[in-house]
Amino acid sequence: MKMRTLDPKTVATRDLHQFLLGSVAPRPIAFASTVDDDGNMNIAPYSFFNAFSSNPPILVFSSNRRVTNNTTKDTLHNIQKNKEVVINVVNYNIVRQMTLASIEYPSTVNEFEKAGLTAIPSDIVRPMRIKESPAQMECVVDEILTLGDQGGAGHLIICKVVKLHVAEKVIDEQNRIDPHKMDLMGRMGRAYYVRCSGPNVFPLFQPVTKIALGFDQLPPQIINSKVLTGNNIAQLAGLFEMPKEEDVLALKQNESIATLLDMDNRSLLLQNYAKQVLDLEGDAEKAMKVLLLDV
Amino acid sequence: MKMRTLDPKTVATRDLHQFLLGSVAPRPIAFASTVDDDGNMNIAPYSFFNAFSSNPPILVFSSNRRVTNNTTKDTLHNIQKNKEVVINVVNYNIVRQMTLASIEYPSTVNEFEKAGLTAIPSDIVRPMRIKESPAQMECVVDEILTLGDQGGAGHLIICKVVKLHVAEKVIDEQNRIDPHKMDLMGRMGRAYYVRCSGPNVFPLFQPVTKIALGFDQLPPQIINSKVLTGNNIAQLAGLFEMPKEEDVLALKQNESIATLLDMDNRSLLLQNYAKQVLDLEGDAEKAMKVLLLDV
What we know:
The structure is a homodimer.
Chain A: E1 3-6, H1 13-23, E2 30-35, E3 41-46, E4 49-54, E5 57-61, H2 74-82, E6 84-88, H3 95-101, H4 111-115, E7 119-120, E8 129-130, E9 135-146, E10 155-167, H5 179-182, E11 184-187, E12 192-196, E13 201-203, H6 220-223, H7 230-237, H8 245-250, H9 255-261, H10 266-281, H11 284-292
Antiparallel strand pairs in A: 2-3, 2-6, 4-5, 5-10, 6-9, 7-8, 9-10, 11-12
Helix pairs in contact in A: 10-11
């Protein structure tokens, strides 16, 4: 793979910014609600944001110095003064309203009104929650770390969640959030967003505490296959043990497999068959047995 | 919207953890490569990760204390010793190989071999890059902040990017990363991932420095519409000025619109027509004119 190498010391900030945003994605969106000393309400979206700890529950986001004129934003000023913020999440239903709140209205303009969103009181902190958001996290700010003094420089606004509100309708019968019902938006580079529901969202199961085989334990006809992808081979390498020889040989009773074994290009046919078993049935154990018949 | 309210002080860590992961999503994935003093290589994925500044270029990720037994991970030990890490991104092609690297193999096991990935030397730091990753960021670690001492507690590992390698094939003719070619994976709650390419990825344009109308400047028939969604109204509110009256009236020359104006339920019909103009053509100016005919 031909790579382009960028040295942050010599690349223009604007270009480096876009290469970082295109590489570090998808980013979750913090729709941050704050209030100033006069009670002026502010909401603004930030995608330099994530959870970093669950015990204590810590969220961190950055309100960056503007690249264009090196000024800072109302959200940061408000938090510096009163150390409180509500972080609301952004789902598909409110994403365009969110883009309105990113417009740089003067400090005294209420972005709730501009974006057509409803302010509702929080239980503990002074900033209001966004009623239309499916998850609202009331936070007190523990610390603000400054990462630089030039345009584009970030801050780490370290927030402790003191109350979490989640819409009942996105919680499933296992008492967990269903991502399809939540329908969150993520931020990519440039003007791109990603909608996180539908067929693009799927589970990948791999136990982390039980030791799997790994690529190095697989026979060469699998590792060197021109048919199987890296993802296919990884499914096989994720098994905990090689199948028993008698179970492999038992597969010869399967009529369609027996037919393949009689063909001249049996290796290729068995690999294609195994790939289908992996891609369509997700049955790594069966696929492994099929591949081991090629000896 | 009925909300469920959770108090972090009384909710079990395991449940709070899952509610946070389901709410703060999609999360970008840092596939972190580190090395210990004996040269043992380690790679492991982390989704408590994001960019936080572009000037200086700062990435932050967390290697959390395990919830089950409150122990810490090899990645953290290696970074504490030598303050270097390569953060590689994860695209669709290597996501299952990434899941293999999340398995808790003993410290001396080389996860590059287990996951079938290729280690290539970095320009500046000692940890190796992952050849198959479409973006590899060589970093020196500025600081490690500890967020707690219980199981589930995170660390802020604050990394400065000293060299960025991006695959030429994901860069478009405007010298920017094409998200569809990059094909990144994001992490959701539970075992869910999101693939960030295809129709789920789309641009939303809203200039932030030019002042848009906002919801409060729209007439009541738009704000109170039962047909238009919040996203539809936000497209209209994102315009910079109301159309001129003569331009609105000129629309009456349009035959299909003239027909609608003659009907008894003209309000409903005009709103449905405007919604189509917004959803299918994305033409907020035309939709606004259509809606203003309903007087």
